[in-house]
């Protein structure tokens, strides 16, 4: 009796297992809809393939050569690169020189693909975005022959450079071409305390350098001494001069 009851209980479970096996086998075809009857009821289901996202940016896409392709789920987006304008599929270079650009007032702006180049005007130095006047092209001339070291100062006729304003100067013409670099005796260059450069002239590669100007005392040594800037402009020298600390003093010159 107990055996029959046990067998009766196993029968429904066995049928259910068979139906479950059918269900599992049928679901392997994920593109088909099925109807399976279980105890008079109809079970309807449908399976779809779940595909991994395709990165179109790694293959063929419609983005312009001057655009960036960004993959998104199920699609992609094209964005023009900096310096270009368009919808991503078609990108046109922007001429920055016709609008707002970063070039200095004293620089030329040249447009190129995707960007622009700044170059300082002749007579100016810098990176194009910051340009300053090159002193080799912006200076004042000192041409008085009485500045030469060979000029002996007549009594009571001493001159002084107190009228000089701060700036770059070049010795030209009758004044010679440069400052002397050896001691100049007092009472030369049409003054009492003769100014000379206590140090060598720089090379072009040195750029602007500091040097000391000694204004010779009557006996020996320097009555005054000041620091100035000197620059080699390839074929000539220029000096950033200031007023001497006392009078009568003058900057001397030589050939």
UniProtKB/TrEMBL annotation:
The keyword Secreted does not apply. One of its GO terms (cellular component) is extracellular space. It comes from the Eukaryota. Pfam families: D8C_UMOD, EGF_3. The keyword Glycoprotein applies. Residues 53-92, 93-132 form the EGF-like domain. InterPro entries: D8C_UMOD/GP2/OIT3-like, EGF, EGF-like_Ca-bd_dom, EGF-type_Asp/Asn_hydroxyl_site, NELL2-like_EGF, PKC-binding_NELL. GO terms for molecular function: calcium ion binding; heparin binding. Keywords: Disulfide bond, EGF-like domain, Glycoprotein, Repeat, Signal. This is EGF-like domain-containing protein.
């Amino acid at each position: 009796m107990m055996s029959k009851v046990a067998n009766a209980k196993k029968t429904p479970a066995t049928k259910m297992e068979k139906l479950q096996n059918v269900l599992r086998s049928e679901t392997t075809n994920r593109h088909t809809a099925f109807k399976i009857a279980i105890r008079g009821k109809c079970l309807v289901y449908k399976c779809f393939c779940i595909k991994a996202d395709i990165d179109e940016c790694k293959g063929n896409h419609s983005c312009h050569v001057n655009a960036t392709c960004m993959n998104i789920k199920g699609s992609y987006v094209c964005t023009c690169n900096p310096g270009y304008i368009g919808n991503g599929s078609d990108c046109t270079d922007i001429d920055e020189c016709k609008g707002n650009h970063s070039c200095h007032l004293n620089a030329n702006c040249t447009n190129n693909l995707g960007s622009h180049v700044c170059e300082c005007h002749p007579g100016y130095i810098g990176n194009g975005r910051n340009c300053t006047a090159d002193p080799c092209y912006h200076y004042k001339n000192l041409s008085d022959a009485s500045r030469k070291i060979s000029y002996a100062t007549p009594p009571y006729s001493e001159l002084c450079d107190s009228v000089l304003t701060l700036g770059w100067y070049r010795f030209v013409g009758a004044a010679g071409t440069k400052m002397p670099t050896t001691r100049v005796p007092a009472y030369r260059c049409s003054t009492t305390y003769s100014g000379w450069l206590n140090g060598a002239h720089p090379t072009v590669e040195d750029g602007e350098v500091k040097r000391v100007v000694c204004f010779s005392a009557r006996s020996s040594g320097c009555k005054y001494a000041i620091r100035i800037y000197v620059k080699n402009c390839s074929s000539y020298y220029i000096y950033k001069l200031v007023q001497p600390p006392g009078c009568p003093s003058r900057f001397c010159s030589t050939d």
